[in-house]
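FAQ: What does the model actually see?

It sees only this:
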Amino acid sequence: MGVDVIFEWSAIWDAMPSLIEGTKMTIYITFLGLLGGSIMGFFTGVITTYIRVPVTWRTSLIALVVLVLVIAILRWVSFSFALDEAGDIALWWKLLCSAVLLAALVFFRRYIGVALSFLAQLYILLIRGTPIVVQVMFIYFALPLLVGWRIDGVSAAIFTLVINSGAYIAEIVRGALQSVSKGLQEAGQAMGLPFHKILIFIIAPVAWRRMIPAMGNQCIISLKDSSLFIVIGVAELTRQGQEIIASNFRSVEIWAAVAVIYLILTGFIALTLKLIEHRMRSI
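And it is asked to produce this:
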């Protein structure tokens, strides 16, 4: 025997103000997350494309052990000898650490690119190998215990989306750059152009056309991934829908409205990227 379900449109209209607020928060988090992720992904992709360093499990393990030892030594020294009367790290210790870091960068400047490439590849491996829910839970709950400062839910969500989308965008950028013919770079070198001008004015326009479909896909994925930040209580669209259902028990209507809003947002992104792709092809 079936159960008749009455679809009440009034439940959607009553919930619309809260759903709109949740939509604004979703757009806000997604926009800032993709903006930061695009910047991080572009530089990471360029580094991993043009500074190639083999990354193996052995070298990764060695680098991780060295990093843990360095952090442990710095924390022990700083908390043992460099505390002022208020219990904070003294200014002289901060200046000394900055001077040592600057001297190390100057002395090992020829290895900076290699180190950046190695770290970039480890970053991509780590982020792509872990779920975004685990990442945001670590940033929101575990990171304050490690570094001693508290982060609010919205900032944690944005930061998580930045590092998550940045890793995937880096691979999109790397694939697009590698697809460009080496003859273009050689032509720029023959003209006497420096590498950054070759990259910006010759390689980037060709690579950008090829990465548009993948970038559109990543934008849609990041928008939908923002719904997972419900686990830390961020008042985005899905969270607002859940709270509304808890008060009026109209799950069919509210989840249908939430789904339609997500569909409108993703459709807008897809249409915008299609227009950009068409525009780039006509140039």
